[in-house]
């Protein structure tokens, strides 16, 4: 394995990018000779150029050696430029990769069995890998490490010279097709040599290390399997959990030491008294971690609690034994954690206890190969750790000191110049950071803080960086941007300090952060995520089509790296890629089936995002119809005029714990009358209303009805006679009024106080005519309740019975104090009565028709209001104008008189005789009166009718929705108060966990409610379920469903490519014919294709 650390490799990458970006000088003195080759035949040109640049050893594959190689700078430059041109074309990288695979499989169909992933996935990985090779081609050490890492990843593939040859030729042909004349001779030589170097390395690594690595991985998987079984048996798994969770970040050495002591004691007991009674209490170590700690105590390393730190990452280290760069990352992080450890660290101890533990856990498998392989692994880890031991503490202090002592104005400058320095070095970076300068400075500040925080809490930072990395996946930041970023940041830091240790500390930690980010981006960049960045439906569909059917839903909903995850669906919403979000939603809610299983992403969606309805209401309401329609399945078959319909509304009714779901409340808050009328919402809200909420609501209204009856009895109706009231009547009235005050006032008061303080606490303040009021008062019922409360309080204070009682007149309303208040009291009683009846309109929600009628009345009342304003205006205008003609009719002088006359005319209360008298008395006055009557009765009255008709028409279509919203709001509040037991009984009555039949005998999915609807309500001409034959393996993707036009596009594209290919090969043949007599033998870098 190669040596080196993060810092060196990243520095090399930095230098590469710098020379590349700044147009650095590439020269190896052979350019003149290259120019002289122009006249030779292509094959001869190629060979001469290879010789000219001293690359003869890469003409063929050589699996016997693998060492660092320096490629001539001119070659590196040519390859990098070629790569840039080839991949930055409009087709995009992935399409180039796919073209390459098509070429490869055409040339060598037998190679197809080697590749198990879908072509698109392979293409993406191949292009990323090749890109990283080319980017480090100019730096021997970085190239060596990268090739070696790739070699490890190819261990399980039989890479042979012949296969590598096919690869090379296919790639060169594909590039040739794409670039034609622009694929220069130097670039051909370079890419040929690079691919041969990599191919040879893969063969070498496979021969040298394959045995060791497979021994390690195989034996570790056996150990792991035993661990899992043990944990399953030992359901509580206390011991292993404790060890695995060991976090020594905050110097938890004491705790760790205690655990080591415990193990030591138990180990000692075992040694001393093996086979005796006490042994039963002692836990025999069965997992690797337990065994290691046990062996550590037995072998006298009981105090080496640092081993716990290694154990936390040991699994990742072993599993990534073939991935050197990951191994290095793990060791770098571990070295930071070990730096916090206060005791002495003797690294070789770990090798001894590991080997002893594995020997005990693998008694049958263990042999000398295992001994060599595991020893080799630890030696590599030890080598990497030794490089860093002792350094992190010094670096942390240096960086802390630097940031602590940096004057504020310099700190601001450092922060402000970070990204500009990066843009200077890599101008392409600007395309990814188009944010405002303040946001960029904010990010720069975070980056600087992270470089120090990495030393302070490395494990927490790894988590945090993974999360940040996943966000970078969403912003489609290419990994190539990170080396120049580190480079620019370090160069900037050097301008602020001359202290080498500070620069070193900053460079090291930033390089490690960038490395983790790059890994996260590489792991998190799935085809789906890349497609989302394009916001194109067809690209996303292609990406989804290669997902295994069993994982399709989870790949659309979650991408995880370590413990962090990101949801492609939510990301597409957040980034405004709503086309993609809609495609994802449609795909998730499509029911697909093979012979064995029905696949439907509804459960996945609501399990991963229980708050999806709320999120859509807030951020993407346009997607609500897609979601709500996707919850319905309708049968294509009908029986006796009826059709089966399954509504998968389980997650709309209940949350993941089986409690009341907040979804209905969210839809009510969203307030859209269209959404609430979607069939799925209608069904579930009606079920909640009719089965749970309506009884509770009715119970509360019955109380209200009783109170109203008592109020009516106490105030009026029953005793209608002219004489004075009898004592009995007075007693009944007093009793009713007292019951009314006692029954209404406290209830109304408490409810108002509750709402008032809730709104104040939540800051829910609305405005009416500019006045701030708590929002609950915007609701008619609540504001009417407040008015009723006030009026009842006034009535109680003015109550005639109470006044007479207080003045010792007994139970009567006939006393002086009562007489004084009677008039005011009766007005209040009138208002209270109206409010009581007004509040009763709530009961209309039992019928959607009545409820919408009530709402329509409210809506059109506005039009009537306009009519009244216009009428008052006309009355004032005409009454004042006619009163100016007082000389014509002195007996009716004054505006007030005419106001009264005209009002009674417009209300049709003016007597017929008076009209005749008016006409006979004065023609001059009759004319304006006629005009007034014409305007009011002909113009305004008809206008009012037209207004009402139109506004009724407009309002009624939405009124059903508003009525539903009204009822849903009451349902949502009422179900929240339902006792848990009653709610559970209701849920079990719905039997949501039972699978529903699609058609007779075809048992399908659970989580729904089946109803029958009239066949012609929603005609269905196509089976909603997409059924597929063929393999039923969950790992197989669904067969592609290409739309017709997409298919056409595809065909045209292919035809175009084929034509281009033919033209190119014709041109090439013609060129070859004119320059040489033709050559035979292997084609070095020239196209083999002839069509
Ligand atoms: C070591 C290198 C880097 C670190 C530690 C880093 C860190 C961060 C952090 C902490 C954020 C804020 C995340 C959030 O709050 O959502 C961020 C956002 C971002 N970064 Fe980086 N970054 C690095 C390199 C880069 C590079 C090289 C690019 C592109 C050329 C880049 C592009 C972005 C973009 C586009 C955003 C989103 C900005 C926004 O939300 O307004 N980053 N980065």
Secondary structure blueprint with pairings:
Layout: H1 6-21, H2 31-36, H3 42-52, H4 73-87, H5 93-107, H6 119-135, H7 140-153, H8 161-179, H9 185-233, H10 238-244, H11 253-273, H12 288-298, H13 306-319, H14 324-338, H15 347-361, H16 368-388, H17 391-405, H18 408-425, H19 437-456, H20 458-474, H21 482-496, H22 500-524, H23 527-534, H24 537-545, H25 552-557, E1 559-561, E2 564-566, H26 568-574, H27 578-588, E3 592-593, E4 598-599, H28 602-608, H29 612-619, H30 624-629, E5 632-639, E6 642-647, H31 650-653, H32 663-670, H33 679-715, H34 727-762, E7 765-768, E8 771-774, H35 780-798, H36 800-806, H37 816-839, H38 848-883, H39 895-906, H40 912-921, H41 923-976, H42 980-990, E9 1009-1014, E10 1026-1027, H43 1044-1075
Parallel strand pairs: 3-10
Antiparallel strand pairs: 1-2, 3-4, 5-6, 6-9, 7-8
Helix pairs in contact: 1-21, 1-22, 3-9, 4-9, 5-6, 5-8, 6-7, 7-9, 8-9, 9-16, 11-12, 12-15, 13-14, 14-16, 14-22, 15-16, 17-22, 18-19, 18-21, 19-20, 19-22, 20-22, 21-22, 23-24, 26-27, 29-32, 32-41, 33-34, 33-37, 33-41, 34-35, 35-37, 36-37, 38-39, 38-41
């Amino acid at each position: 394995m190669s040596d080196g650390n993060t810092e060196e490799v990243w520095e090399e990458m930095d230098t590469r990018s710098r020379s590349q970006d700044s147009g650095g000088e590439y020269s190896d003195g052979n350019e003149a000779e290259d120019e002289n080759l122009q006249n030779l035949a292509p094959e001869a040109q190629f060979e001469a150029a290879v010789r000219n640049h001293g690359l003869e050893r890469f003409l063929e594959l050589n699996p016997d050696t693998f060492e660092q190689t320096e490629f001539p700078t001119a070659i590196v430059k040519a390859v990098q430029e070629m790569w840039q041109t080839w991949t930055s074309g409009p087709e995009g990288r992935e399409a180039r990769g796919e073209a390459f695979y098509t070429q490869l499989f055409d040339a060598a169909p037998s190679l197809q069995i080697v590749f198990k992933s879908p072509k698109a996935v392979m293409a993406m990985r191949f292009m990323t890998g090749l890109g990283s090779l080319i980017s480090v081609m100019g730096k021997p050490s970085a190239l060596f490490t990268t090739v070696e890492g790739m070699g490890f990843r190819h261990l399980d593939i039989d890479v042979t010279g012949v296969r590598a040859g096919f690869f090379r030729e296919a790639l060169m042909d594909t590039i040739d097709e794409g670039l034609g004349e622009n694929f220069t001779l130097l670039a051909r030589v370079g890419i040929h040599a690079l691919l041969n170097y990599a191919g040879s390395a893969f063969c070498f690594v496979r021969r040298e290390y394959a045995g060791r690595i497979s021994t390690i991985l195989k034996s570790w998987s056996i150990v792991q399997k035993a661990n899992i079984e043990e944990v399953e048996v030992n359901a509580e798994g206390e011991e292993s959990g404790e060890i695995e969770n060991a976090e020594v970040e905050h110097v938890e050495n004491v705790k760790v030491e205690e655990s080591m002591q415990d193990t030591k004691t138990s180990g000692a007991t075992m040694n001393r008294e093996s086979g005796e009674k006490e042994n039963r209490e002692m836990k025999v170590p069965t997992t690797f971690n337990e065994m290691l700690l046990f062996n550590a105590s037995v072998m006298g390393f009981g105090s080496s609690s640092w081993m716990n730190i290694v154990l936390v990452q040991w699994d990742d280290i072993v599993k990534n034994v073939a991935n050197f760069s990951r191994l290095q990352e793990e060791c770098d992080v571990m070295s930071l954690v070990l730096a916090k450890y206060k005791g002495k660290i003797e690294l070789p101890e770990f090798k001894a206890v590991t080997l002893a533990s594995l020997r005990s856990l693998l008694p049958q498998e263990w042999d000398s190969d295992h001994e060599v392989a595991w020893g080799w692994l630890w030696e590599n880890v030890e080598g990497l750790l030794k490089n860093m031991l002792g350094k992190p503490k010094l670096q942390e202090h240096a960086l802390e000191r630097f940031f602590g002592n940096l004057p504020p104005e310099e700190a601001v400058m450092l922060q402000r110049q970070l990204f500009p320095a990066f843009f200077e070095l890599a101008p392409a970076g600007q395309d990814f950071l188009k944010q405002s300068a303040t946001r960029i400075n904010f990010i720069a500040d975070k980056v600087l803080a992270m470089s120090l925080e990495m030393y302070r809490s490395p494990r927490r930072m790894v988590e945090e960086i993974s999360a940040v990395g996943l966000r970078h996946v969403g912003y489609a930041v290419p990994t190539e941007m990170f080396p120049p970023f580190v480079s620019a940041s370090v160069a900037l830091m050097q301008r602020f300090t001359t202290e080498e240790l500070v620069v070193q500390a900053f460079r090291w930690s930033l390089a490690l952060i960038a490395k983790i980010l790059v890994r996260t981006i590489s792991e998190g960049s799935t085809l789906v995520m890349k497609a989302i960045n394009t916001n194109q439906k067809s690209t996303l569909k292609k990406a989804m089509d290669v997902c295994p059917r069993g994982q399709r839903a989870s790949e659309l909903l979650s991408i995880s790296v370590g413990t962090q995850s990101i949801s492609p669906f939510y990301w597409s919403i957040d980034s405004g890629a709503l086309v993609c979000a809609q495609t994802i939603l449609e795909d998730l809610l499509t029911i697909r089936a093979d012979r064995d299983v029905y696949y439907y992403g509804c459960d996945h969606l609501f399990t991963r995002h229980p708050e999806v309805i709320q999120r859509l209401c807030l951020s993407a309401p346009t997607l609500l119809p897609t979601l709500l329609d996707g919850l319905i399945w309708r049968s294509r078959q009908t029986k006796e005029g009826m059709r089966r319909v399954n509504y998968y509304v389980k997650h709309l009714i209940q949350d993941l714990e089986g409690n009341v779901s907040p979804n209905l409340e969210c839809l009510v808050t969203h307030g859209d009358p269209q959404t609430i009328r979607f069939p799925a919402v209608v069904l579930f809200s009606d079920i909640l209303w009719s089965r749970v909420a309506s009884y509770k609501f009715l119970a509360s209204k019955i109380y209200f009805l009783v109170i109203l009856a008592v109020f009516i009895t106490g105030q009026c109706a029953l005793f209608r006679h002219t004489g004075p009231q009898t004592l009995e009547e007075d007693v009944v009235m007093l009793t009713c009024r007292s019951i009314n005050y006692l029954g209404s006032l406290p209830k109304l008061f408490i409810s108002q106080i509750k709402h008032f303080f809730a709104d104040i606490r939540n800051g829910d303040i609305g405005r009416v005519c500019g006045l701030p009021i708590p929002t609950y008062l915007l609701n008619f019922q609540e504001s009417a309740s407040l008015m009723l409360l006030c009026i009842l309080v006034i009535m109680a204070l003015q109550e005639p019975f109470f006044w007479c009682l207080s003045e010792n007149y007994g139970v009567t309303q006939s006393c002086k104090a009562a007489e004084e208040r009677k008039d005011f009291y009766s007005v209040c009683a009138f208002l209270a009565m109206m409010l009581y009846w007004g509040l009763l309109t709530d009961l209309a929600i039992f019928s959607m028709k009545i409820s919408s009628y009530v709402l329509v009345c409210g809506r059109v009342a506005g039009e009537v209001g306009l009519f009244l304003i216009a009428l008052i205006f006309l009355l004032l205008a005409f009454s004042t104008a006619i009163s100016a003609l007082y000389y014509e009719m002195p007996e009716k002088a004054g505006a007030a008189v005419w106001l009264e006359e005209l009002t009674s005319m417009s209300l049709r209360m003016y007597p017929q005789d008076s009209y005749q008298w008016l006409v006979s008395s004065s023609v001059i006055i009759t004319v304006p009166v006629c005009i007034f009557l014409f305007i009011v009765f002909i113009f305004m009255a008809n206008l009012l009718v037209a207004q009402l008709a139109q506004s009724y028409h407009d309002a009624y279509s939405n009124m059903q929705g508003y009525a539903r919203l009204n009822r849903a709001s009451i349902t949502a509040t009422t179900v929240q108060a339902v006792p848990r037991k009653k709610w559970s009984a209701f849920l079990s009555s719905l039997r949501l966990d039972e699978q529903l039949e699609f058609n007779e005998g075809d048992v399908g999915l659970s989580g729904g409610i089946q109803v029958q609807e009239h066949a012609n309500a929603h005609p269905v001409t196509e089976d909603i379920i997409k059924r597929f034959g063929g393999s039923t393996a969950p790992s197989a993707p669904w067969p592609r469903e290409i739309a017709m036009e997409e298919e056409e596009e595809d065909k045209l594209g292919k035809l175009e490519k084929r034509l281009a290919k033919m033209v190119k090969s014709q041109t090439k043949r013609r060129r070859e014919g004119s320059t040489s007599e033709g050559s035979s033998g292997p084609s070095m870098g020239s196209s083999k294709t002839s069509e």
